[in-house]
Every structure is written in structure tokens, then in C-alpha cells.
Amino acid sequence: MVCSPSGSAFSHHQEGCGVERGYLRLVEMPRYTLPTVVVLQMVTVGGFEDWLGHTISVKSRFCACRIAVLEFYLLWSSLCYNDNEEYRIGKIIGTLTSSHNWLLRTKTFQDERYKEREIMEQTIKFPVVNLSKLNGEERDQTMALINDACENWGFFEIVNHGLPYDLMDNVEKMTKEHYKKTMEQKFNDMLKSKGLEKLETEVEDVDWESTFYLRHLPQSNLYDIPDMSDEYRTAMKDFGKRLENLAENLLDQLCENLGLEKGYLKKMFHGTKGPSFGTKVSNYPPCPKPEMIKGLRAHTDAGGIILLFQDDKVSGLQLLKDGDWIDVPPLNHSIVINLGDQLEVITNGKYKSVMHRVVTQKEGNRMSIASFYNPGSDAEISPASSLASKETEYPSFVFDDYMKLYAGVKFQPKEPRFEAMRNATAVTELNPAASVETF
Ligand SMILES: O=C(O)CCC(=O)C(=O)O
Ligand SMILES: [Fe+2]
């Protein structure tokens, strides 16, 4: 009988190699970072038969729970003959983290872990939408899933969205190369100049990120950005165009769910010059003291709909749900969608923009490419009449006026912004701080 699952991912620690006897360590696999590190502690040590009837504790940063050894062994043995190691590890992590059934079958959670369990349960419920199902029998359920995500999360993740994977891989590769070549030194110089190398106290007015901005619409600035290779520009142009189409399709799906005519949102975003569409390319370098500084402080996005291509190896994006910060799980080749303040206004609060932030990580450089499909600067924004209540709660304004306000108060709650826009004279009372470059 096999004594224990083995393989490079599961290393049965040996005495003398610095790991206590009795532990199995599931090594962090770059592609599947959700549980970060799962440690399997064998309750007893010995032959496999000795383990049967016992439970092992599984610890991750989300939960600590127990699973019967037999159950774990069955799971493992159904996989260990598959030669594809990534597949095996993915399957195991998937089962340990993404299955409600597994959670239900899990015997007990320690009481003090209750909160962590709640957060984990929210994480595994994070809405993932298979967009290809919009063309098939499951269209209605898929539209309902999108609607639920817009009403209750302000966020969802899409897969099978039609963007070619090789383009995404190329964009990721070139963005990482570009960072190494032209941005990394600048970031390190910034740390020096701002005295952030030691991080002895909590920093609340700077973000641990390195960014640059590309504008696609109404006029592209792609060829004005220095230090980009022609190849990188071409890939970003193609990527931007495809995301623009995707954003417009998604807006129409939102219209359908909201009972608005097709094209309603696009038309409202149009103004006289068409929508504004831009991409913020970010890297979040490893940070020695993640507890002292955020990669990006908590905020809601000002604009319309945001499409985020995030690193599938290094996590960090979190959204605020019912008072808890929930991880937005990295998923290979997915696009994360979230709604900005304008959609909250137009839907009169039926959909909400949701606070999110990026936490820093001790290890790994996180790439994120966020594309913002926003109203044009002179677009007039107001709650859709069919969604407005008698006493319309949300204000009407010209988008640029909202952006001028937002630039100074991005990291403050959105409600005073809406209040200020309702009463234009109150705008100055918000006392905008230093302006931030944003879409
Ligand atoms: O980098 C990310 O994951 C999120 C970026 C973001 O929220 C923003 O730029 O507004
Ligand atoms: Fe954001």
C-alpha cells in the first residue's frame, strides 16, 4: 500500500530537512495561488493503514478544517496516475477550496476559525460567468448570474469571453518584460525618494504600485508612450480593441437585464465625442512588509465598466462584501469585470460600485491591466427614467464634473461624492486632496 501521496508537489518531509516529521506540505504552486499554502498535518505518523480512520487538518489562510484521511486518499489516488502535474495540483486545490460539497462534508471547523470560514465561503461563491453559455441553452441562467453579480457583488469574473489566449499570454509576457526593462528601476527610485524602503510605520497616502496609462478613445495616445516596443504597442492596440468590443457587449447584456433598450448605456456614455476608454497597466512588486502599505488603497471606480486582466499567479485584489475583504481569485485567462460609480447612478442604485483594494504580497510581482470603459467627458449622466423612483436618489451631472471631484477624493467613500453632485455648490466642501491620475 502506498504510504503517502508523493510527488514534487507533495513532499513528504524527511527528518533533518528542517520540517517537523508528521507534516505534508503542499507547496505553493505558482499557477494556483488561491490557498497560498496548504499544510496537511498527519495526525499520526506511520504506515497508511495507521492513518485510516484519522483525520488530517488542512490549513490555509482562509480556513483550518479537517478531512478524513481516507477521503483525501481517494481524491489523491483518483489523480495520481495523471501525468500532468499541474492538472493534479489544480484538481486538488480546486477540490479543497472550491467545492461546497467538500465544505459540507468537512467535519468541523474550529470555533475561532468561524470568521475565516465565512470569508472562504464568500470567496468560493465569487461569481464566475462562462460567457460562451450566452449562445446556448443556458442563456437565461447565465443572464441571471450576471444580474445577480451586478446586484450583489458589483464584480464578476468571465471565462470563455472570446479573447484569444495567445494574445493574452503575449500581452502578459510583454507587460512583464516592459516592467523589468523600463519601470522597475523607477519604482525602486521612488521607494528611495519617498523613504519607503524600511516601512517602519503604516503608510496611508502612497500606493505600492508601478503604473502607466494608455488611452484608446476618444483619441489613442499609444504612440506617444515612450519605451514601448512596436510589438508591445501592436499587441496592446489589438487587446484594447477587443476589450472595447467586449465592454460594449457587456453593457448591452446589462441593458437587457435592466429592461433598458439595447444600446441605452452606450448612448448615454457617448456625449459628443464618444466614450472614453483607457488602460492602466500596473505592476505590484513584492513588498517586504505587506501589513504596512497597500498596493492600491480602497476605492470605488468612478466610471462605467472595468475589465481587468490580472496575474494568474500572484493574487492581491480584494473587494469589500458585507464588511469583509474577499479575494478576487486569480483564474487563468479570465477577465474580472466590475462596475463603476456611473452605473450605480444610471441604475439608480440597482447596481452598485463596490469598494476594492489591492494588498501587497511578500513574494511575486503582480501584473494587472485594468481597462476602463467610461462616459465621454461631456456625457450627461442621470438615472434611467424607467429605474428612477419618484424621489430620485441619485444626481444628474456632466461626467467630467464628476471626474474633477473624484480625482481629489478617490480614496474616500462614494456617498459624499453623490451628495456633492446633487448639490453642486457642495463640491468644494469635500476639500479635494492632491489630485490622482485616474480614468
Ligand atoms: O490592479 C488591480 O487589480 C485593480 C486596479 C484598480 O482597482 C484600479 O486601478 O482602479
Ligand atoms: Fe479600481
Automatic annotation (TrEMBL):
<keyword id="KW-0408">Iron</keyword>
<dbReference type="InterPro" id="IPR026992">
    <property type="entry name" value="DIOX_N"/>
</dbReference>
<keyword id="KW-0479">Metal-binding</keyword>
<dbReference type="InterPro" id="IPR027443">
    <property type="entry name" value="IPNS-like_sf"/>
</dbReference>
<dbReference type="Pfam" id="PF03171">
    <property type="entry name" value="2OG-FeII_Oxy"/>
</dbReference>
<feature type="domain" description="Fe2OG dioxygenase">
    <location>
        <begin position="275"/>
        <end position="375"/>
    </location>
</feature>
<dbReference type="InterPro" id="IPR050295">
    <property type="entry name" value="Plant_2OG-oxidoreductases"/>
</dbReference>
<dbReference type="InterPro" id="IPR005123">
    <property type="entry name" value="Oxoglu/Fe-dep_dioxygenase_dom"/>
</dbReference>
<comment type="similarity">
    <text>Belongs to the iron/ascorbate-dependent oxidoreductase family.</text>
</comment>
<keyword id="KW-0560">Oxidoreductase</keyword>
<dbReference type="InterPro" id="IPR044861">
    <property type="entry name" value="IPNS-like_FE2OG_OXY"/>
</dbReference>
<protein>
    <recommendedName>
        <fullName>Fe2OG dioxygenase domain-containing protein</fullName>
    </recommendedName>
</protein>
<dbReference type="Pfam" id="PF14226">
    <property type="entry name" value="DIOX_N"/>
</dbReference>
